[in-house]
Amino acid sequence: xxAQDEIVFEDFFPAMVDKLGAEGFMKELCNGxxxxxxxxxxxxxxxxxxxNLALLGLQGMSDDELVCMVRxxxxxxxxxxxxxxxxxxxxxxxxxxxxxxxxxxxxxxVSEI
Length: 113
Fold this sequence. Notes:
calcium ion binding, KIC/PBP1/KRP1, EF_hand_dom, Calcium-binding protein PBP1, EF-hand-dom_pair
């Protein structure tokens, strides 16, 4: 049982991949990125996340938790998440997708060629 203040992540991504296919799922991740990003900076920032907390159902998150979320995925250290960092983070948060990520990425790239 989760503690009252603990955020429980239910992994819906495998079901989304089954329904949308690899290419459709990657498009949805990109749509999610665009929804959350700061339009002027072209990346997801703590501020852009803060502005979308209600949309995400995460109204109770503190600034420190938001900073940790961004820092977790910020691979290049610029203080935000670009589209690739966001997609990488989403894959890392999904144990089932991590197991099948190579196949999914190959399918997505093949459909782009």
